[in-house]
Amino acid sequence: MTVSAPVALAFEYRPATEPALGVGTAAPRLTWHVPAAPSTWVQEAAEFEVTRTPWGGEAVTSQHTVAGSDQTFVGWPAAPLVSRERASVRVRVSGGGETSDWSAPAVVEAGLLEASDWGAEFVSPVGIAGIDESSPALVSSFQVDGPPTAARLHITAHGWFEVHLNGVRVSDDYFGPGWTVYPKRLRYYTYDVTGLVREGENEVAVLLGNGWWRGRLTWLGRQAVYGDRLGAMVRLDVATDAGTSAHVTGSDWRAVETHITADDMYMGQDSDLTRPLLGTESHPVEPVDVDLDTLVAAVGPAVRAVEQVAAQQVWRSPSGKLLVDFGQNLVGFTRLTVRGLTAGTRITLKHAEVLEHDELGTRPLRSAKATDTYLVAGAETEVLEPRFTFHGFRYAEVEGVDDLDPADITAVVTFSDMARTGWFECSEPLVNRLHENTVWGMKGNFVDVPTDCPQRDERLGWTGDIQVFSPAALFLHDAVGFLSNWTDDLAAEQHDDGTVPIIVPDVLGAPFAACAWGDAAVVVPWNLYLATGDASILARQLGSMKGWVDKISSLAGESRLWLGGFQFGDWLDPAAPPESPAAARADADVVASACYFHCADLTAKAAAVVGDEEAAATYGALAAEVREAFRRRFVTSDGHVLSDAPTVYSQAIVWGLLDDEQLPFAGARLADLLRLESFRISTGFVGTPLISDALTMTGQAAAAYALLLQTQCPSWLYSVTMGATTIWERYDSMLPDGTINPGEMTSFNHYALGAVVDWLHRVVAGLQVDVPNRRVTAAPVPGGRLTYAKASLDTLFGTAATGWTSDGTTVTVELTVPVGMTGAFALPGSEVEPVGSGTHTRTFAAPQAPAKPTTVRELLDSDVWPQVAGIVTEAGLATGDQALATRLKRHLGASVQGDALVQLVSPPGFQAPNAGLAERLAAVLA
Fold first, then answer.
1. How far apart are CA 71 and CA 85, in angstroms?
2. Three-class secondary structure of residue 67 per DSSP
């Protein structure tokens, strides 16, 4: 086999599928991978051909060689770029006496690297565009002398923008410039508009919407949080054979009203299509003060309309409302085609995630109206869709038309345009749907910031949610640029004393520090490093990481324990009442102190990675002190953890807070706690991402699978059996009778509880990818009733994959290792076996089927437990399997042979009226 030419040449965190325009660094790093090579091949050098073209200048080509095996984030090999300079780069690699062919060329262009490069004013309309008035547009015309050979548009704004050039929308982006900490970080975008600029007269229009800048934010309905005026700054560079020119925003621009009469992210958009898109009455503009040093080039992907979902059903509700079901809970907007309506006819579209009593279930929206209205123009055919809002919905209610063909209405999905990178599949359809629901939950909540819900009057970047979900997110999609941008915002919002806001960007201003939420400052950068091997992420965020740990230390004091004060704790433990989601089983002090240790430990590791030996030693010592204090206060000698709740055991086991001698007891106790709930889920936000790992790490895989495959409420699969197509905020967001949870806070599109899919990837399928050490390990733990599982991940080195199938006697495992990484099999009963790149197969003995249960503990683990619980419930001795399991809590080791089980399941003093009960139970156990 020869060495293939490198592919997927990319710059920084930009995708390889498109030119990297407007990058914010003069020395963009390069990443590529080699599709095929001999299994033992190692890259020894990379050669680059760089053809660079200054804006309006002549191309110059140079070649450069970099020694070493690095294929990711390789330093820029040539002289730094200058603003607006374009470079076309090819790479070829060599090693073992072989040299590959050249890669296809990839293009990178520097953005406006200095504030002075803009040469423009930030302008805002005068006399129009008040908060509750029609959306404005900034318009101008300019002359181009000669056929254009290149044109670039650079833009930033206060409010959402949509740019039209000669009547054509310049991009398919939505909601630019996105949501950042505007006073400190205002993004700009760069677009190639060469095909839209023409010789002679040109017209440019920048439509502006309220967006995050001044639209409603939070359930408090705050408006104009960042400012009460919309505006934009534009630089449009055009090159012709005769030279270059620039058209920039200034006092010569003008403002007009648009036919968008109201727009808001929560409320929706109102449009009067009897008016033209751009009004004819001109109004002046004036400059507004903006600190140009806050401008940053976009790093993460823009929000785009990534797909369309067809209507599945149109019908009338019991009250006569015209309803549409798209079959999938999603985020975006509806596109409706109407025909032959009289001008001025009002069309109204309302959106919601669920139905309740066969009507649109809008209560979970709280104050958000999620409603778009249109006064139609009266054309023969009109397509109605909003520009400056988005909704979370599966269902829509349409008013203003008598009937509707399903083909005339479509749901358009908006999502930060991240490539899908990770996949999972197994033999259990319900688990596959759980995984797909998590994917859709991520799509719906990754709309420029990692939100907690996309439908109600919230949609905020809650730090706790993304902290627990970031490993799953970085597997499912290429979320590196997205989350790198967000962590920069987190650091920008962090208080001088180290406090991390509970949401980022922070529009609440809550003045307290909360474990698990503030931990995002440490955990998300660490997970970004694990996903990329890019130590610069840690170098950039280390100050923020240390600041958060220092803040906890100031609260903990010499005790080295985080005690007292407000905590969200194990938020949304299913045992908590609907109106009190923080009332978890896990003691808040135990949860917080465990988080303290975890953050100190990761900060020490991050410091070691970036070579800060002093910080590594300081925070390593701190972590050891916290660990010792935790065990002294909260853990007995055998491993019993205070509050005896699944979450505290999960934290202690997974994060390394226990001695090796304590782990067996802690794992066994954790499994017993689940048995006593008949394997209903009993963890909230903190424990849910950890509990499955805690079980499999301590030899309790059977319990982990029983937990995964439970379908009764609360469980991961309960929502699937109820028809969910996304992850819910609460395990019981919808009750078994089809009514919505009575709690004020109920969403049907949250991703946090979907964090379990990370365990599906790593443990069920066994795909363990160590990017920093360039290693892929197949380490599956088969179990439950699964007969196969597989996962694949498009890494920076290429596709890594594992999969296994079982025939009941043997398990066959396949491992695919990309070029540039090493591999290993870590199979039960075998030594770790290293392998090279390529695809490899190994076989091992299947786990033994469980023997006939002889104790209560074994019975609760067995497949016959549901039948036993059903028989006992039918006999009137219990109200269900969960209640029966709880009653047996003091008898887990007791025998179930003979008549023993009848005695155990019978209440004290009970005389069995059914003489056949013992026989029925014995038949099940036989």
1. 24
2. strand
The token pair at 179 is 């949501």
Query: Which CATH architecture describes the domain 478-634?
Result: Alpha/alpha barrel (1.50)
Residue 410: its H or E element: strand 409-416
Strand order from edge to edge, sheet including 822-825: 767-770, 775-778, 822-825, 833-835
Dist CA 646 CA 644 (whole Å): 7
Q: What are the structural domain ranges in the chain?
A: 7-110, 115-297, 303-416, 478-634, 768-845, 856-925
Residues forming a β-bridge with 255: 138, 283
Residue-by-residue DSSP string for 171-231: -SEESBT--S-TTT-EEEEEEE-TTT--SEEEEEEEEEE-HHHHS-BTTTTB--SS-S--E
Task: Report pLDDT digits (tens) over 506-534.
Answer: 999 988 999 999 999 999 999 999 999 99
Contact indicator for 599, 519 with CB cutoff of 8 Å: yes
Whether residue 206 contacts residue 125, with contact meaning beta carbons closer than 8 Å, is answered with no
Residue ranges with strand state E in 699-849: 767-770, 775-778, 788-795, 798-806, 810-817, 822-825, 833-835, 838-845
Torsion of CA 333, 255, 228, 237, to 10 degrees: 80
Q: Which two tokens stand for residue 49?
A: 């051909």
What would the two tokens of residue 482 be? 């997205």
Residue 226: how many other CB atoms lie within 10 Å:
18
How is 457-478 classified by DSSP, letter by letter? S----BHHHHHHHHHHHHHHB-
Neighbours of 644 (CB within 10 A): 14
| pLDDT, tens digit (0-9, with 9 covering 90-100), for 862-898 | 889 999 999 989 888 889 999 999 989 899 999 988 7
> Known catalytic residues?
458, 729
Hey, what amino acid is at 126? V
Closest CA to 693 of 708, 677, 673: 708
Q: Do domains 115-297 and 768-845 have the same CATH topology?
A: no
Closest CA relative to residue 465, chosen from 527, 538, 519: 519
With 0.85 as the threshold, say if the pTM is over it: yes
Name the β-bridge partners of 790. 425, 803
At residue 303, the 3 state secondary structure works out as strand
What is 7-110's CATH number, 2.60.40.10, 2.70.150.10, 3.40.50.720, 2.40.160.210? 2.60.40.10
Amino acid letter, residue 331? V
Q: Which residue, 225, 195, 201, is CA-closest to 211?
A: 225
Q: Which residues of 441-469 are buried (b: 16+ CB within 10 A; e: fewer)?
A: bbbbbbbbbbbbbbbbbbbbbbbbbbbbb
pLDDT, tens digit (0-9, with 9 covering 90-100), for 345-401: 999 999 999 999 999 999 999 999 999 999 999 999 999 999 999 999 999 999 999
pLDDT digits (tens, 9 = 90+) for 144-160: 999 999 999 999 999 99
Mean pLDDT, residues 501-509 taken together: 96
How does 485-523 read in b/e, with b if 16+ C-beta sit within 10 Å? bbbbbbbbbbeeebbbbbbbbbbbeeeebbbbbbbbbbb
Q: What is the pLDDT of residues 81-140, one digit of tens each?
A: 999 999 999 999 999 999 999 999 999 999 999 999 999 999 999 999 999 999 999 999
| CATH, domain range 115-297 | 2.60.120.260
- Nearest-angstrom CA–CA distance, 647 and 643: 10
- Beta carbons within 10 angstroms of residue 704's beta carbon: 28
**What is the rounded CA–CA span in Å between residue 739 and residue 911?**
39
Tokens read off for 847? 């786990």
Round to whole Å and give the CA distance between 234 and 114.
Answer: 15
Sole residue written with tokens 């963009």? 28
Tell me the CA distances in angstroms from 252 to 125, 151, 155, 205, one per residue in order. Answer: 12, 21, 17, 13
User: What is the torsion angle, in degrees rounded to the nearest 10, for the CA atoms of residue 889, residue 895, residue 896 and residue 897?
Assistant: -170
